[in-house]
Design a protein that fits this description.
This protein has about 260 residues and is α/β, with parallel strands linked by helices. The chain contains 12 helices and 8 strands. Helix 7 packs across helix 9. The structure holds 2-phosphoglycolic acid.
């Protein structure tokens, strides 16, 4: 991480877990256990049904609430979908876009991701754009090309001003929920390739301000080594974000100098 130029961000991704009523207790406990969170922004991305309770419980704390998906249209005949304006109106600040589970199980394409990123920024939300390669791509040594391609597609027609809202999360698919974490060097190599690509499109100044998170089997025991890398500016955390104590420990790890 490099706090001089960009924010450290710890974002929990609850995925499809817990019930709405559990949000409040969780946030109360997290607030107590992570009270010294001065250096990093904390985000909790909960299911749509939990957003109202979570936003309410997080009011007046350092915790921002995020959604895990959105639709790209402002409104209209899209049964079952939720727009970015609806999220922003509820007090939601972030939205995860293009998580590999959405790409894999719901057929989300790079073009969908790009449309959602635009919609999120237009509505005043900060998109957390997920990029990541499969095991097969890594074994073929093609991960950097793959990530660059996903990144460019996600940011098509996004200008430097809009980029200021963007958070990137590098999440190798083979590390998600598997307990098989990338090494800090692997995460940093991809983080630095992402920043280099941003630099080539937007210039050095805009690129150095973007927070690039790592996600995939992060836990209290491995987070410190990850966050010590220059192009890892925090984490997107699934399994370990379901317990306030383990999320609080990861937040502590992000605040070490
Ligand atoms: P994990 O999930 O921490 O459980 O591996 C990360 C993610 O999918 O965002």
């Amino acid at each position: 991480m490099n706090r001089r130029y960009r924010k450290t961000i710890i974002a929990g991704n609850w995925k499809m877990n817990k019930l709405p009523g559990e949000s409040k207790d969780f946030i109360v406990q997290l607030k107590e256990q992570a009270s010294a969170a001065k250096w990093c922004d904390i985000v909790l991305c909960v299911p749509f049904t939990h957003l109202h309770a979570a936003v309410k419980a997080a009011r007046g704390t350092r915790i921002a609430i995020g959604a895990q998906n959105c639709h790209f249209a402002e409104k209209g005949a899209y049964t079952g979908e939720v727009s970015c304006r609806m999220l922003a109106d509820m007090g939601v600040k972030y939205v995860i876009i293009g998580h590999s589970e959405r790409r894999q199980y719901f057929g989300e394409t790079d073009s969908d991701v790009n449309k959602k990123v635009k919609a999120a920024i237009d509505a005043g939300l900060r998109p957390i754009i997920c990029l990541g390669e499969s095991l097969e791509i890594r074994e073929n040594g093609a991960e950097l090309d793959h990530i660059r391609m996903q990144l460019k597609a996600a940011l098509k027609d996004i200008d430097a001003q809009q980029l200021r809202k963007v958070v990137i999360a590098y999440e190798p698919i083979w590390a998600i929920g598997t307990g098989r974490i990338a090494t800090p060097q692997q995460a940093d190599e991809v983080g630095s390739a992402i920043r280099e690509t941003l630099r080539s499109i937007y210039g050095a100044r805009a690129a150095r301000g973007v927070s690039i998170l790592y996600g995939g089997s992060l836990s209290e025991s491995n987070a410190g080594g990850m966050f010590a890398m220059p192009d890892v500016d925090g984490g997107l955390i699934g399994g370990a974000s379901l317990e306030p104590a383990s999320l609080a420990s990861i937040i502590d790890a992000a605040q070490q100098d």
